[in-house]
Amino acid sequence: MLSFRLPLFAFALFCTQFNAQSLPPCSSPVAPAVPGGGAVITSVANFVTRQPFTSGINPNFTSGMEPSGPVSSGELVSIMGSWLAADSTYPMADGTWPASLNGAEVLVSAGGVVVNAPILYAGMRRDGPVFGAIANAEIVAQLPFNLEGGTVTLQVRVSGRCVGNQFTLPLALNTALFVQPPYTVAVGTKSGSAMSIYGTGLGDVVDPAFRAGQAATSPIPVRANVSVTLGDMPATVSYAGVSGLPGLYQVNFQVPTLVPGTYITRFAVDGTSAGSILVQVQ
C-alpha cells in the first residue's frame, strides 16, 4: 500500500509529445532581452543533492555545457541561471504540472523522440544568493519516463527562444534520497515495523502508459531492483516505485529482527549504492 506523508505539492500532467524526431533549431540562441541582460544557464543539477551535472558554460553559446551527468528517466532536475522566467510561481492548484510555466519550457530529446518535461517551478532560486531576484533563477522539471538511447539532450526555451545552447548528458540511473547528508536518524523504530523513504532518480517504471508529472493512484513499480540492508541484515522491500506525489519515488520496507541499537541502513538500485540513513531500533 502506498502512503503519502510528505508536504509537497501534488499535481499531474501527461507529457506533450511533439511530432518531431529532433529538437527545433536554435536560430536565435539568446532569449529576449530582459532587465539586467539576456537569459543565461549556469548549471543543471540534481534537485535533491543540488550537485551539478554540467559545468563550463560557454558565454558565447557556441559549445553549450560540458556534461558530467548522468541523469535518469523520471528524475527531478534543477536548471539554474539568470532570467529563466518572468515571475516566480508554482503551477496553480488545478491538478497539473504544465509543459510551460512563466514562459519557460524544457524540451527533452532521446531515442529520436522529443517531449516536454513537466515543470514544477520556474522563477527565483530557492537557495540563491540574491533571493527574490529573477536574475538568480531556477527551473525544476521532471524528465520523462522510458527515455531510450545512451544520452538525453535538453533544450531550455524562454518565450519560445533558446536559452544558450542545447546540451547532452549520459542517460543512466542516478538515485538521490530525500535525506540530509551524511545521514538522517530514524528513531523509535521496532523490529518488524514498516518504513518508507523517498527520493528521485530510480529510473523507468513498468507501466509504459504512466507519464512524468503524474501522481500515482495505484502502485506503479520501477523496473530496477531496489534493495535495503540494516547493518548486515537484508530488509524485505515491499514496494519501490512512484509515490502519490508527482516526481517522487517511494521505497517501502520492513525492518528485520534486530537487537536494539543504531544501524546504518543502506539502499542500492541494481546493485549500485543509492545512499544511507541511520535507523535506531528499539
What does this entry look like structurally?
There is one protein chain. With 282 residues, this protein is an all-beta fold. It has two domains: 40-170, Sandwich (Immunoglobulin-like); 176-281, Immunoglobulin-like (Sandwich). Helix content is 0%, strand content 39%. The chain has no helices and 20 strands. The strands form four sheets. Strands 12, 13, 14, 15, 16, 17, 18, 19 and 20 form a nine-stranded mixed sheet that branches. Strands 5, 6, 9, 10 and 11 form a five-stranded antiparallel sheet that branches. A hairpin with a 2-residue loop joins β9 (151-158) and β10. The chain is elongated and about 60 Å long. Residues 1-19, 29-37 and 55-65 have low confidence and may be disordered.
Order of helices and strands: EEEEEEEEEEEEEEEEEEEE
Q: Mean pLDDT, as a whole number?
A: 75
According to DSSP, the number of beta strands is 20
Largest sheet: 9 strands, mixed
* Class from secondary-structure proportions: mainly beta
Helix content: under 10%
How many separate structural domains? 2
CATH architecture of the largest domain: Sandwich
What's the helix count? Answer: 0
User: From the alpha-carbon coordinates, what is the Rg to the nearest angstrom?
Assistant: 19 Å
Distance between the termini: 24 Å
Morphology: elongated
Low-confidence residue ranges:
1-19, 29-37, 55-65
CATH class of the largest domain: Mainly Beta
Strand proportion, as a percent range, falls in: 35-45%
Here the CATH topology of the largest domain equals Immunoglobulin-like
